[in-house]
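assembly run, all chains below
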Amino acid sequence: MGRKLVWAGVLLALSMPGPAFADQPTKGGILSFAIGGEAPNYDCHANYSFSAIHWLAPHYSTLLKFDTSAYPSIVPDVAESYSVSDDQLTYTFKLRRNVQFHDGSPMTSADVKATYERISKPPKDVISLRSTLFEDVASIETPDPFTIVFKLSKRDASMLANFASPWNCIYSGDKLAKDANFPRTSIMGTGPFVFVEHAKGSHWVGKRFDRYFIEGKPYLDGFRAVLMSGPAMINALQGGQIVAEFRGFSPAEKSRLVDALGDKATVQESGWSCKLDILFNTAKKPFDDVRIRRALNIAIGRWDGARSLQRVAFVREVGGVIRPGYEFAAKKEELTKYPGYSEDIAAARSEAKRLLKEAGVENLKVTLLNRNLSMPYTPTGLFVIDQWRQVGVSVDHVQLETSPYQASLQSGNYDVGINAACDFMDEPNLQLLNYISKDLSSLNYGNYIDRTLDDLYEKQKRAANKAERYALVRQFEQRLFHEAYTAPLIWWHRIVVHHKQVRGWYITPSHYLGQDLASLWLAR
Amino acid sequence: MLSYVGYRLLLVVPTLVGVALLIFLMLRVLPGDVVEIKLRGDGGHVTQDVVERERHRLGLDKPMLTQLVNWMVGLARLDLGTSMWTGRPVAEEIGARLELSLQVAVMATLIAVLIAIPLGTLSALFKDSAVDYVVRIVTISGLALPSFWLGMLIILTLLYVFSWSPPITYTPFYQDPLANLAQLIWPALAVGYRYAAVVARMVRSSLIEVLREDYIRTARAKGIVPRLVVIRHALPNALLPAITVIGLEFAFLIGGLVVTEQVFNLNGIGKLFVQAVSRNDFTLIQGLVMLLAVIFVLVNLLVDLFYAVLDPRVRYR
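ok done. output:
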């Protein structure tokens, strides 16, 4: 039985210099910030969007969480400590004894069990969007009120990270027993802030939970989140009516705010666990021909494109299926060997023309489906069009609103498309899910079946160690890029600008993480 | 008159039934539904079983005729149903935004009327003079400048020149009149300017025409003071077409300030409409269309009744 001394990790993280600020937190103040969207309901388990987690996270806790000051380190949240068995099939969590729900009732292992049973095996009328992440959980045991044991039927390399997901908000077991859907309409967690008010379409208010389980936190008296985006949000940030927005800004917005706020602004930047993919609808001719898909893929000069696009859009890095910089990502020397990633774009274009000629489509015309969002879809779409024109392919750029765009992808009513893929953490199980066969993943819009990819996905998921997993992810990439069903175009780059008085918030590659606001404080 | 009003109100019923049918069918022709956006719109991996269960919960798996009947029966009971996105009653969703939209529309209308009638009258009375040219420049600028762009200019001027920007959340007038006006006066001005330009042009052209009429010449020949000729005899008649425009503009403002609401971050009906459309929230779209249809019908009725007040020749039976 191998035990991990997680507090050692916490101490190590604390001893590391923070990315921005080292001064002492002060208590008090109301954080006023913007959120760019609104969720359909209040249930963490039934939502995907940042526009849900940014509202909900301050009210809830999770078993573990990511330490945003030392991402991707994982630290306990309501857990006090945890251990993983040598065979990685048993996860045991010791819970803190002082955790209370906002109604004053104590949180015990029964609440955690009820929560995870709702996530992994939801009742018929409950929506759980991440049940597949816990499909290997065979049983959940609660030997005492402060111990919970998860037993897995198979090893899953992502399991620890899954327990740190911000989406696994812990709910009251008693409340769930009375109404399994109470979290859709009610907010009652163990997080640092108590829910006060939600004015639909306008704002959301939370106040400090005085009995929060971490002594001294949260630092803020409360927060007021305002629903706003675009120029109105930038104006409000400049005018000081809000002091932050935590999703991300375009380079132009960053420049404007930095110019306007001067030394009152703090800019934090990071890679982003989001990317744009180019999709080929393999169910439609001529994209069932691998030569055409490959030609279109290798004709895109990603390296030059990244240098140009980063000036106008929040994109920057060239990468494979895993975010560049993450431990399972392909290194540049590996990437440049993949089709589509060569730095010799002239040679790649010659090869693309040869492939198109061989396939008998020298004057290929394609329709490129894209979302009508300026950031970063439109500039990236225009870049792709320019690249393909250089190999004689003419492109009709169709940009649609989200709803018809999504419907076109789902129904296969498109030729070639640009699609974004964002995940709440860097984790091959999540990122590779976009590329496995259609019958296994609803995210496969290329409409292909490839059992080799499915097999590699399963193997990397069950890998015993990181080296083995890294090698399997490389094999997966090689297969994917060789078949060119779909391929990453460019990875996003996250820029967050906030007022300098906002302290204790650290940017990570995921805009879903670190939004419980427990450690955030306002400098006076 | 009362029987006429009763007759007109009765005519509203088939009009609204027609609108309800049309919007229901039009929405069902469009591809996609709210479930796709809710569960997969942000790239979520969701099994088809979950999608189907949510469709079932929302009643989207029922035959179209059943859905239509449910919708029409609900309407007959003044029940607009529940939003497919939030699960809250449509009436509640609309009610939370209607107050703000109505206030902006009323304020913009007041601003427009207060500016447009004097300007249009001056322009007509001093046709082709320096006054007329100045008014024409002001009104044509109002027509040419989009309200949202003017709104952006207002906000940026307040921000850069006065280091101040309007409140970003709504406070009802009865709670804090100053905070309320500090937020809503700016969009009302931005919208009211264009609105005033439309009405002023209408008043000008209409008054010029009326001033050439025989009865005006007769009034002048009888020696009535020129000011009274204009106020008592010319202006009421010249205002008839302007009132139609004011009525239509007012009704449009309730749900049509989509971009202006974005610029000023107003939680109004226009923004709700855009959200409902982008989410394929059929029930909310249907509810909003019905609301706007009712507003247009009632405003038209009020305009017709106002005609009778201004023009004694107009009598409804």
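Chain B touches chain A through 50 residues (CB under 8 Å).

The mean pLDDT of chain B is 91.

not gonna interpret more than that til we talk
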